[in-house]
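Researcher: Here's a chain I'd like modeled. Treat it as a single chain, no partners, no ligands.
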Amino acid sequence: MTLVLVGSPVGPAAQATTAFLERYCVQCHGAGKQKGKVTLHDLGTNFSDSGTADRWIEILGQLTTGDMPPQEAENIPGTSERSEMIEWIEEGLKQSGRDHAYRKKLLAPEYGNWVNHEKLFSGEIRTPPFSPSRIWRLSPEIFKRKGFGRARSPFTYITPQKGIRDYSAMSQVDQSTVQMILINTGQFLEQREKNGEFGDFTKVEGIPPDEVLQRRVSQEFRRIIGRVPSEAEGDKYLAFLKKNIAAGGNLEGLKTTIKAIFLSPEAIYRMEFGLGKTDEHGRRHLSSTEIVNALAYALTDDLAERSPLLWDAYEADQLKDRGDVRRVVRELLEKQLGGGRWSDPALPRIMRFFEQYFGFDRVGDVFKDNDRRRREAIPQWNPQYLVHDARMIIENVLRRDRDVIAELLTTNEYFVAHPGDNDYAREFYDERVKEVMHPDYVNRQVAKAEEEYRNRKKPDHVPSAEWEKRRGIFLEERRKRAQQAVKLFSNALARGINPHPDFPFSDRSRGLSDLIYITAYNLPESGRSEDQRWNWPVEQPFEMPADQRAGLLTHPAWLAAWSLNDGNDPIHRGIWVLEKLLAGKLQDLPPDVDAKVPINPHQTLRERMELLREERCWNCHHKINPLGETFEIFDDWGRYRTHVYFGEDGKIVTRRDQKFEALLEQGKLTPRKINATGAIAGTGDPGVDGKVENAIEMLHRLGRSERTRQSFIRHLFRYFMGRNEMLSDSRTLIEAEQAYLAGEGSFKELVVSLLSSDSFLYRR
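Model: Modeled as a single isolated chain. Structure tokens:
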């Protein structure tokens, strides 16, 4: 019997929908067979009915993620058929006004990939790009740079920690935010009053003259908002200040006025309405003021006035159009990218993108038990050093600025315990060796300690004899420390090893003090009191084994960040690769699904995950597991491994301490080779898709693939625009990819293209 949609009007669209359901759906979800208790043979098209609309939304989700029809089905729709069906459902929801909740859901970062990837890069979309007019709440980082002392940011992210966070549509100001602003303002004003900053108001009798009030209004407005008030704004706040003074006196009147400025929209939001010219498509160009602020916040987190390049161009009226923006952004990147201190870079939002995209900076949030650390032969777990090392890789790739995406995913050139600046590293190393190996080094250190102690003030309650005794102990400790340094440097140099110089905390170095944390790299560690075993390269990066490391996803910082407290996490690693490199999509996890993998000490993690191959789970996990399981060649500390070991009781042995070595030597452990095989699917490139032996092979295939390049660009787009892509952004994304390729894989050209795009410069 021919399927007829209930309530369906006759017409080509309805006929195509009927044919689609008949061909791909009703054989499993019809009158005879009702798989998953879902039927589609009786589905109506009255989208105004909430029940019908909800059923179509469920179908829409399944079609968008590609989960239905399932991969093993006899008939699977092609990309164009699937897209046409998706568009038909979306139009039906829109016409009935039932698409609000669905559209709102798609604004969240986790649904960014739901916009059809093939269409975005096909070139068929001709709609001129734009961004919706908006007010974009200030980020915590912008607030921090406002200079309000130790005030706690009233602004927080509500987006997930695992991904790009600053989304304009999801940054709301609620009652708690307003309360925090008022608390901050009160503390800020209290401290300023203690500092005597309001003397001109507290000491004067009567109301201060208008010129004093006007000057104060302008000063406070500029300090809080970041610009000089307009004449109208100045007049408004002057009148408000006079009214407050009349009601509460000079000081309280001023405080009330300052609080009002703190609660004004521009103190809380970035305004992006498009105050420039309107074009023939109804798009409004950002004004020069909007452009300079948008660029400053896109790259620096700071006020535009604090960026000389941006501000000079703005004041010279050279920030009006796309050409102006391209010139200024390119100059800014050339001169300032990589500049500043390691703790305060000139363009902080560049590195923050990579941190939010890769997520390696979260490694310190993953708890690692100290007892387990000792059993598994990790002498010191220092996540912050690992994060610093990973950042150095990114900075090095950005300096070269060639094939950036591929290099980030495939390079085996690493930095370990290094400041990232070879000139500084060589200079400091040479000076340190010269200093320590000087014949009089020990005596000099003792003399410095003597002077340091002499400059200390003796507490009145400490007797002179006790003070002198402490002096002797202090000097002896310094002598022993100096002698130890001489010994370790001498031993290293005698064996042809470069001794690690113990970098201090400074503008050029983050205090990399020893090599005890490097076990995660499969490198021989050593503490300050031990002879060094690894020949630390003075100039870096250096090459790690190419069959063990390939880019940031095989770096210990990323591997540990995407692990669990007590083991690997193939599921979330697989999700990361699917979403970040393949622009893949997943359905929401059903509420009745228990996502825990059972514990069984006799099985490897991969064996325990076999239960996810059950039909209900595998519908999603067939996309995830073959990607995430490729990382099983590493443990959750980030160490490369080739085997897993079983004890005589058949249980997996995770320890790697001396007891493990003894058991191994006694033949009491049974090794089994790690199975890290997997597969890539969905790139559309037969040279990329297919089985892989492990993560190294997978990353080398994906690193230079078109799909990964485009997926990376989509995420960078979201970061700078503060929203997910729309189909109308197609031209912006295509132009960005073309700019990247024309620049031989230049990240700078990618940034220039996005920040000068119509999506960035136009509002509607």
